[in-house]
Prior knowledge:
Chain A is of the alpha/beta class. Chain A is built from twelve helices and eight strands. Chain A has an eight-stranded mixed β-sheet, with helices on both faces.
Amino acid sequence: MANIPQKIIHEYLRHDKKFPHVWCSGCSNGIVLGGIIRAIADMQLDRDDIMMVSGIGCSSRMPVYVDFNTLHTLHGRSIAYATGIKLHKPHMKVIVVTGDGDCTAIGGNHLIHAARRNIDLTVVLINNNIYGMTGGQCSPTTPHEAIATTAPYGNIEPDFNICNLAMGAGASFVGRTTAFHAIEMQNMIKDAIIHPGFSMVEVISACPVIFGRLNKKGGAPDMMKAMRDNSIPLAAVEKLPPEKVEGKIIRGILRRDERPEYCDEYAKLVKRVQAKEAK
Amino acid sequence: MPKTKTEKTKVAAVKEAPIKESPKKDNRKVVLMQGNEAVALGALDAGVNFFAGYPITPSTEIAEILAAELPKRNGVFVQMEDEIASICAITGASLAGAKTLTATSGPGFSLMQEGIGFAKITETPCVVVNVQRSGPSTGMPTSPAQGDIMQAKWGTHGDAPAIVLYPDSVKESYELTIRAVNLSEKYRTCVILLLDEVIGHMREAVTLPDIENVRVISRIKPTVPPQWYKHYDENQKYLSPLASYGEGYRFHVTGLTHDSHGFPTNKASEAADMMERLRKKISHNIRDLVQIESHKMEDATIAIFAAGITSRAAKSAVAAARAEGIKVGLLRPLTIWPFPDDAVRRMLRNVETVIVPELNQGQLIHEIQRLTKDKSDSNLIAIQRVNGRLITPNDILRKIKEVC
């Protein structure tokens, strides 16, 4: 037999007309796409039940490439569209793919309220610390003093800690990983999809062409190595002295709580109201 | 002597009036209700099973009633975090197969404009009810105004035609809500229903039809296997079937300019096809979309052109003027967009003077100006008011007497 490439992702990609993709070389978005596909393949979910929703930005171009139910919406609004779909078809597994600007700047309001409702959406937030698609403007996660095209003298704003934001708003599953830790990411996405409630998976990613170049971070391999070297698993945090934790990316599932899920609560309300009406 | 009975002529053909006359009169219920209640009831009777909204005066009662009623009928009511989220949630739910509606007023309507454009470019059925209030900005939340007539057409960026309906009474609020839902399903677009604040809050006796006599239109579902399905298929009259998410048709929807399968494109030919489809599905179906009431226009030399609550004042002024022997009539659009060009042009042919009263600084009058270019400007008379008060029958009568 000839050596015919047969990877899992090939079964899930829309091959006609959609490629080549829009992402730059060295971008982490493809790794995250692979992680989501492998998580879904692992769970053997029916792809007719998978709904992928996105907003606007580099990461939000993902749905067009995959053979699921896919919806590419307005900047910042993916969670609001996803809420409508999930409430009408609660059996669907609704995955929102978004970025730091899309989800925590323009879409911040929808993020906190979906987290508060604890509606069963899985948000995969690819955090590249910058607006890539529009060419390198400052985002809510651009680090303090980093360079962006709209912060040419260095960013004077403090940055968001996305996981803390999601937890503060009431998200019942919150995890952080990086594009370097592909297997960990894939498993975390799987856990997040299984979790009945609002899940946030923050994937720290590399944007070598824009963020990396503006901030002299080297090429894609250097940025991947930085993710490896500058991150520590949650389990190790307690054993390390505080100075070794300072400034590091902490990876792992930061919260996994059982809390009433919104669609379940709505179904209960309907039952209650109808029982009362029947009397 | 003026006739007491109003002859109502639907000049442009209306093939599918939403309500048939009930065969047995006794079966009809007479109910005293508010315009906003009538909208909520119309939505339920049209089969709306998903409402997402945000409280705003003077539309809030619509949300309150649906919050109570939808759970009884297995529908979904959700109060979102703002109006932007509301239009997005109903669009998402519609793509998943729900019949959807939201209700708001000026400030919320402005916030929804980007989402309305998304529903139009993605050809997703949904209805936005805008109970208009005085503006701009916060304005006078409990005072009437007709300032959103142009926003309803041009509010979203880019170029896309609009379907906008405008009732003049509580009863018609019920009927046009059903019609708005039906048209949104049939034409796969966001249909807008404009109410005046006073119609939203006014109570009138309404004769409701039997539910069996309410004509409900639902989207056409695809009959082809998924691999043959095109999300935007041009069949006759540009009305194409619509699959729902989660039912085996794994389609893609994007706000980017797209090809007939829904995938983004930069090709000039495909972009032109998409824009033409959006335009033609409206322009090729004008006769189905347009409704206009002609009242005592047969021998009129003076015509009043007015919509919504202002047309009620105009109707009274017509009766009073006719009592004094003045030949005046009223033209009232129930569909304001697409504008009923042909019908208006035809009906104004023998008229010497047109009076356009409206609660704004001049919006509908531009359309009449466009259609009566051959008449001199002195024959086109505006009555405009933007102080939160209505134009009264006397205001119009005075103007009629000035010109005759």
